[in-house]
Request: fold
Amino acid sequence: MYPYAHHPQDRRRSSAAREEVSRGLAHGTGLSALARRVGRAPRTVAREVQPNSGKSG
Reply:
């Protein structure tokens, strides 16, 4: 068995974390502060935000 099994609960938490990050970005909150809020490493949040930022280049 894998140490980090994927359960429906994990998807809900992940969805909630994404919503929290999205709201924080809209309010100008920094990635480090957002990472602390959602219990993730700042680099993890940055990697998720970067491809979805809507910026070219």
Remarks:
- The two ends are 41 Å apart (CA to CA).
- Confidence is low (pLDDT under 50) at residues 1-5.
- The helical segments are 8-26, 31-38, 42-49.
- DSSP finds three helices and no strands in the chain.
